[in-house]
Design a protein that fits this description.
Length: 354
């Protein structure tokens, strides 16, 4: 600003501050919270632009009164005293001269920021408008320039419902229920849980796990793990020997073998030998009624028949000498003394076994 405007700005500020200019300066922490005079907020408010006390996106004369109130330790609702700490080292006399030099300063792009301010079920329970740097510095995540905070019902895998910004809800592992939804209104949260689905053309058929409603999971062509289930990550070995970190249920749905909690592909020299394993889980007519992808060692421990490294499980009609028909893996069928009826066959459409 020009010299005359600087003088006018300084005189207005001096008039507002009165004796505080020299001896009555309130102590303000580096977070912009007055700690001697006036009310102290529960938590610091992120500052999108230093000097923009009223949060209108510009540093100008409209911020003078708020700056004075913050300096004196008597802010009113709407005053962001964090922004009164111009040099970021705690509010002091140095900030007065720095503030006077600011005028018509455009603020950086602002947008919605998801933050955590309590220990409740939602990881990101609060949405505020600020700049990306302040957002990240306060442990939040920035939704993008010019994004806005909105509120709708958010359902967590536990079935707990809390009104929150939809992006903050998703970042907390929840499912937003759409515009105008409200946790105070019925119906309750729909069932949500872990959903395995594919987002790329990589080796894993189901490479991604996210918390979704069952209906949304099916729309995505996914495999719903059940109400209340959550996503975890461990090493997953495919019959090809390829290893990828993934949710264990998604790993199994992709024909792989999860290597257990805490495992990760970076710490594994090579995947163990895995393939299709035929074993028995009931006392039905088939001696080997179940086929799963297992390590060779695990298959033998189960008393199963290991089909070989890299083999996979398929299903077709299996006819036993008794005439009984049961859908099963063809190798498991043979190991049980039966005769597989070929790819695409199904006991439901075979009148009688030959």
């Amino acid at each position: 600003m020009n010299l005359q405007r600087k003088r006018t700005h300084s005189m207005r500020l001096a008039t507002l501050l009165g004796v505080a200019w020299f001896g009555g300066l309130a102590t303000v922490s580096a977070h912009g919270q007055p700690v001697v005079n006036g009310p102290t907020p529960d938590a610091p408010i992120p500052c999108g632009c230093r000097g923009d006390i009223n949060g209108d996106g510009t540093v100008d004369g409209l911020d003078i009164a708020g700056f004075a109130r913050c300096l004196l330790g008597n802010p009113i609702p709407g005053d962001n005293c964090t922004c009164a700490d111009i040099d970021g080292d705690g509010m002091n006399m140095d900030d007065i001269s720095l503030f006077v030099q600011l005028d018509k300063l455009p603020c950086p792009p602002r947008g919605a920021c998801c933050l955590d301010i309590d220990d409740g079920p939602l990881t990101f329970d609060t949405c505020v408008i600020t700049d990306p740097i302040s957002c990240v510095n306060n442990g939040g995540f920035f939704q993008g320039a010019d994004s806005d905070c909105t509120v709708q019902a958010c359902c967590l895998p536990s079935g707990f419902c809390q009104n929150a910004d939809p992006q903050c809800c998703v970042a907390s592992g929840g499912v937003p229920l759409g515009p105008n939804s409200n946790c105070a209104l019925p119906p309750p949260c729909p069932p949500v849980g872990a959903c395995c689905f594919d987002i790329d053309d990589g080796p894993l058929a189901f490479d991604t796990c996210e918390i979704r409603t069952q209906a949304d999971c099916l729309i995505r062509g996914g495999v719903f793990q059940g109400t209340g289930t959550t996503c975890t990550v461990e090493a997953c070995c495919l019959p090809s020997g390829f290893c990828q970190d993934a949710d264990p249920a998604c790993c199994k749905a992709s024909g792989g073998v999860p290597l257990g909690p805490g495992s990760n592909c970076a710490a594994i020299d090579s995947c163990p030998v895995i393939g299709a394993c035929c074993f028995d889980i009931d006392d039905g007519p088939l001696a080997f009624d179940t086929c799963e992808i297992r390590t060779q060692a695990d298959c033998l421990i189960r008393g199963g028949v290991f089909q070989g490294a890299g083999t996979t499980c398929t299903v077709e009609a299996c006819c036993l000498p008794s005439g009984f028909c049961q859908d099963a893996d063809p190798e498991c069928c043979i190991a049980s003394g039966g005769i597989p009826q070929g790819p695409g066959s199904d006991c439901a459409v075979i009148p009688n076994c030959p």
